[in-house]
Design goal:
157 residues; mainly alpha
Length: 157
Amino acid sequence: FFLWGIIIYYLSIYGFNIDQSAFYKLRFTPHHEDSPDTEEKNGATQLAEELLQHLEKQKPYLNPELSLPELARQMGYNTNQLSGVINKEMGKNFNELINQYRIETVKERLVDPAFAHLSILGIAFESGFNSKATFNRAFKHFTQQTPSEFLKKQNKK
């Protein structure tokens, strides 16, 4: 024990007397994800365009069970990659993006005579919503009116 005590004492004294100015010279610059390289930025923009094309052509948002991992799998991308592009390039989160497409579909179908046999809620369910509350909240968020108010205004036109 005496020998261990001497070793610990020596290391303590040695560590205390070390010139620490060398440590102060180190300057770490944090890596900001907000300032990606040009190559990464171009890749993100390309992925955003590819996502919009996929949403327009394949209409995966009509599936009420659609999730971010499922959409990423359909497109052949990593979930984090796709989420980052939606957040940074489009300025929204996944649910806002999907609900925006669903609301546009609802608005088109509400004025389409082919869907006249369905109720507003029926059209919402056909457009990918699986909850009345979510549908009403999203519709009000994107149009600043309720679905019935929207329908009344469209009927007056």
